[in-house]
Write a sequence for this structure.
């Protein structure tokens, strides 16, 4: 009798719905939308706040459409712009979203990831000329008076903080300052919105206030290295953040009877005062670190309006 041929046992391995053996799952395809977005953000040399804004706007667009970046057309971009309008956003908010997308698609085209730029012909919304939101001189005096009602430690810090803010610095710029950025005469702004870095000279009163604060902080040896200029008042002395600066100004405004005040109004006050005192607008632009004269023009218009009102009231008194 012939021997029986023994075949090896064949075991059937169950497959999942994707056809992968043993219940293994197929790895999802790489989402190039996310990859290219992250590459763009990593490549761009932009300020941290701009980085966050770009990321936020790109995520909103990706939530609005699931199309791949190379499938986005000029028509789709026009539809998105209309969507932003119908969402009730202000013109500046619409422009912020469109600017992020225009920058991103321009980068994609330059990197040869897409064959055409679908956002190239999309125009930004027209904006009304910006208006200066400055404080009146008596309000600035009230803020100075309110400092005297603070605790000794907070008084010395916030006096220096107010002195710096009233030289036109943005709250984020003040937060980023280190002790070494002050040379005894001027502040060196190394981190600023849209790359608007530069130097800001301080008047004598501000230098006195800042030096008193540094003396309170400790000896010169204690402040060597990359130490934050403005710190919290707790023992840890952490860097005073953007929100903490806004809170300090708001609380000072409450003490002075000026509710709702914010640090940017102090920046506007600085610009308006410079123009009112006769400084050349070109010099104001440099001190404010504006990239164009359009932003500086708001202070010129504000001073003209104030002068016209004073002249009119004087005319009424004489007639």
């Amino acid at each position: 009798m012939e021997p029986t041929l023994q075949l090896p046992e064949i075991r059937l391995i169950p497959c999942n719905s994707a056809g992968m053996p043993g219940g293994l799952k197929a790895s999802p395809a790489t989402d190039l939308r996310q990859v290219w977005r992250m590459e763009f953000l990593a490549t761009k040399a932009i300020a941290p706040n701009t980085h966050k804004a770009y990321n936020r706007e790109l995520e909103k667009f990706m939530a609005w459409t699931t199309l791949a970046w190379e499938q986005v057309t000029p028509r789709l971009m026009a539809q998105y712009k209309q969507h932003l309008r119908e969402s009730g956003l202000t013109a500046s908010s619409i422009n912020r979203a469109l600017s992020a997308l225009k920058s991103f698609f321009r980068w994609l085209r330059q990197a040869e990831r897409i064959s055409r730029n679908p956002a190239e012909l999309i125009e930004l919304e027209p904006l009304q000329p910006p208006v200066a939101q400055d404080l009146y001189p008596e309000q600035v005096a009230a803020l100075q008076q309110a400092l005297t009602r603070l605790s000794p430690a907070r008084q010395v810090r916030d006096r220096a903080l107010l002195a710096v803010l009233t030289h036109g610095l943005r709250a984020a710029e003040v937060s980023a300052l280190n002790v070494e950025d002050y040379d005894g005469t001027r502040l060196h702004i190394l981190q600023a919105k849209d790359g608007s870095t530069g130097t800001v000279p301080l008047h004598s009163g501000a230098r006195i206030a800042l030096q008193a604060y540094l003396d309170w902080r400790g000896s010169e040896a204690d402040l060597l290295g990359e130490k934050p200029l403005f710190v919290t008042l707790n023992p840890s002395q952490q860097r005073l953040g953007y929100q903490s600066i806004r809170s300090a100004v708001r609380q000072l405004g409450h003490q002075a009877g000026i509710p709702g005040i914010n640090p940017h109004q102090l920046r506007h006050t600085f610009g308006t005062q410079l123009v009112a005192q006769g400084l050349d607008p070109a010099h104001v632009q440099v001190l404010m670190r504006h990239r164009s004269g359009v932003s500086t023009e708001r202070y010129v218009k504000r001073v003209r309006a104030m002068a016209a009102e004073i002249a009119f009231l004087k005319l009424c008194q004489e007639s």
Observations:
- The chain has two domains: 32-110, 137-310.
